[in-house]
Amino acid sequence: MKKTILELKDIVKSFPGVLALNRLKFDLKSGEVHAICGENGAGKSTLMKVVCGVYKPDEGEIYVDGVPQSFSSPLDAYRNGVSIIFQETSLFEEMTVLDNIFLGHEIIKKKAGLKLLDYAAMRKKATEIFDRLNTKIDLNACIKTLGMAQKQMVEIAKALTFDANIIIFDEPTASLTQREVDALFDIINKLKQEGRGIVYISHRLEEIFQICDRVTVIRDGQYISTRNVADTNKDELVADMVGRAMTNYYPKAQTDIGEEIFRVEHYYDDGFLKDINFYVRKGEIVGFAGLAGCGRTELMQSICGFTGKAAGKVFLNGEEIEIHNYNDAKNRGIVYVSEDRGKYGLIVDMSIEQNITLPQLQNFANNMSIIDTEKEAEIAGKYLKEFEIKAPDTEFLVANLSGGNQQKVSVSKALALNPTLLILDEPTRGVDVNAKAEIHKIISELTRRNLSIIMISSELPELLGMCDRIYVMKDGSIAGCFDRGEFTQEKILSIALD
Amino acid sequence: MVQEKKRTASFLTKEFYLAIFLLAVLIFLWIFAKGFYTINNIMSILNTYSYTLIAAIGMNMIIITSNIDVSTGALVSVVCLASAAIGKLGLPFPVLLPAAMVMGIILSTINGLFITKTKIPAIVATLATTQIFQGVLPLTTEGSIYDLPATFTWLAFEAKLFGIVPASVLMCLIITVIALFFMKYSRFSKKLYAIGNNQHSARLAGINVEKTIVITYAIAGALFGVTAIIIATAGQRVTTTMGSGLEMTLIASVILGGTSTAGGSGKVIGTVIGALILCIVSPAINYLGISPNWSDAIKGAIIMISVVVGAFQQVKKKRVIQIPKEVLNNGK
To answer: What is the least distance, in Å, from the CA of A207 to any CA of chain B?
Structure first.
């Protein structure tokens, strides 16, 4: 009889404005691999961070081996046999493999009354563990010289030095090659046979069917189902993951879609994007769906000249164009609106009008290069009124606006450049429901003016509601394309997850 | 097997190349600088080197945690003057040394607390304390303290090993050996590197980041105190500007020694070599018959070259995907 070694009861965790986890439950038995899956932002990673002490839960209990526990830090969790291997590794880049494995719990020897680090003992223990994992890593190597897979091995080795009984893998295969994934699965199987319990967080369904025993689906921070992997199939899991009803209203305008204006052929970048082909027509909203890290943002930034291409062709109005930097893109009417307003989109300590005119100051300056503030106020005022930006005047600081209004300023700034192709990266991230609806209305209105729009979004309902066509990306390439009327959440997810 | 192969190549570090450079400079001077290798000159260089290295070891620890201290020069000036004030009472060196160290600890701990409590960047915080330390000096003393007794200048004039080597060299040697040992075999040193690498991860690993940084400043302060007492006791007069500009030499030694200003990396041995190179420049120029006005520019050039070379080594390998030939050909 396998015993339960980890049990979570009614875990609640909220962040300002968001209920991230809502009465979640979960249990893990010894000698099993238990998957947690769900869409982007379903709360998978948050849940595990609660378990290992990165976050404190607002409510609920965590039982390890039947004993209620509350860890103050991951180190504390480690010491109690719970270890987590983070999505972004938490290793120290400039330090050696050995230092990293034993940081915070170094082996000490006493000599002449001094507490000294016992390198010989640490080296011996680390070598033993790597031997058990069938891996060879130079213990003196700096972490920064290792590849992603090796870094993960170091994390696993670190977990094993604590003799962790519960090991949590958070998206471990996100940046591994197929061969490395196979090696990782061998190790997971080995750990399982040693009777350890493994939590496997992933949104790649095929992997779940490959190595997991049970799978728990969570959605929007809520527990949905737990099934035996042997008794279920992919469709069932996708249905559980999608589940939600289409509650939002999407005010999509009926537009006549014109001829093709933008086309990308056989596009590659320096190392991630592979053979990308797509096109956009006049007045069309083209969506890009995919999981976090699938390369959507990288693709758009590369096309706009932020990072540059390695090979491929880009056509605008049937003519091949070369874009070397963002100015080239901007001057040809291709404008990108960043997903991160605060960091890349706006300068929050400047006023609305200053933000809107910033990309084209030359058009607002007289021949003495002095900025004509009246002209600035005029154009800003136009957008203020048109988009109903809630600010007393155009000199209002962007920092004092709400997220939704900031996004409207971001879009205004892009529109002031008179684009022919507008690329919106997560246009409604971090804005409330009402502002979302307003932004959707604006986007819809723009297509009526013959503007073409590329929209990246992690919220499928938004894409389904707004787009005329949706490309699905996966691992740096385009995995599928659906027309309106043809696409459903299930179809898109099953390609994105495959 | 694989591990053995790698280990043979592991001595080809930044520190190794720096040592080669130092050796080359020393040979160059042996051939071209007449009189550089006289006993007097060597002992004078060794004395400067000793007090520079002692403080640089402290600065190295601070920079490893991704912090910095630009107030060191002013701090040393304060400790010099205070030591002179009590030295005037005729107290012997065994009392002056710990007194200077305690003063160094107190002032440097103020820096550490200021940085960790207010979360002000270290460069800003220590810039402020620089002004405060410097500002206090003219209030307490008019220009200098002079006519100091023989008990005060004992270290510089009487304490010689074998009648020739300054005792400061012995102090430096002891401190360097302890530092080498400490940075290799203490748990505390691992915390320094972890904090410098990634404060957030260090916190997740259960390290008390603030406490560690304050202790680091305190340790560095003790070393600054030692440096101050060596500088102060070199003559019968102590002025208010004894340590002026010292901080730049220290930071330069540490950076030249391969410690990244971003923190998280760097070895004591690098600082040992870096400080020696910088301490040689001025006398070397003198003996080569070049105008001493060149000395700062040459120091600057050495630092710049070493930083640029270091930056080239940092360039990371990119992941590269094979692009099919036909696509590449079409693209051209």
So the answer is: 24
CA distance B16 to A112: 32
In a structure prediction context, what are the per-residue pLDDT tens digits for chain A, which is 498 residues long?
578 899 999 999 887 666 788 888 999 999 999 999 887 667 888 888 888 888 888 988 999 988 898 888 888 888 888 988 876 678 898 899 999 999 888 899 988 888 899 999 999 999 998 888 888 889 999 888 888 788 888 988 888 888 889 999 888 877 677 777 888 898 899 889 989 999 998 877 888 898 999 999 988 888 999 999 999 888 888 888 877 544 556 777 777 888 999 999 999 988 788 899 999 999 999 999 988 778 898 899 999 998 878 788 999 998 999 999 999 999 999 999 988 887 788 998 899 999 999 988 888 888 888 888 888 999 999 999 988 888 888 888 888 888 888 899 999 999 999 999 999 998 887 776 677 888 888 998 888 888 999 999 888 888 888 999 999 998 889 999 999 888 888 888 888 877
Fold of B14-311: ABC transporter involved in vitamin B12 uptake, BtuC (1.10.3470)
Measuring CA to CA, how many Å separate A139 from each of A17, A123, B129? 45, 7, 42
Residue reference for tokens 């230092």? A99
CB contact under 8 A, A270 and B205: no
Which chain A residue's Cα is nearest to B320? A271
Proportion of chain A in helix, strand, coil states, percent, rounded to 5: 35, 25, 35
**DSSP for residue A142:** B
A138 touches chain B (CB under 8 A): yes
CA distances from A333 to A283, A299, A359, A458, B181 (A): 14, 17, 13, 25, 62
Residue with tokens 């005029």: A378
Domains of chain A: 4-242 (3.40.50.300), 260-497 (3.40.50.300)
Would you call B193 an interface residue with chain A, using a CB distance cutoff of 8 Å? Answer: yes
Give the number of C-alpha atoms closer than 13 A to the C-alpha of residue A278, restricted to the C-beta side: 25
* The pair of three-digit structure tokens given for residue A127, joined into one six-digit string: 């070598």
Quote ipTM for the complex.
0.80
A108 and chain B in contact, CB less than 8 A = yes
CB distance B331–A311 less than 8 Å?
Answer: yes
- Cβ <8 Å between B193 and A74: no
Q: Where are the domains of chain B?
A: 14-311
A9 CB near a chain B CB, below 8 Å?
no
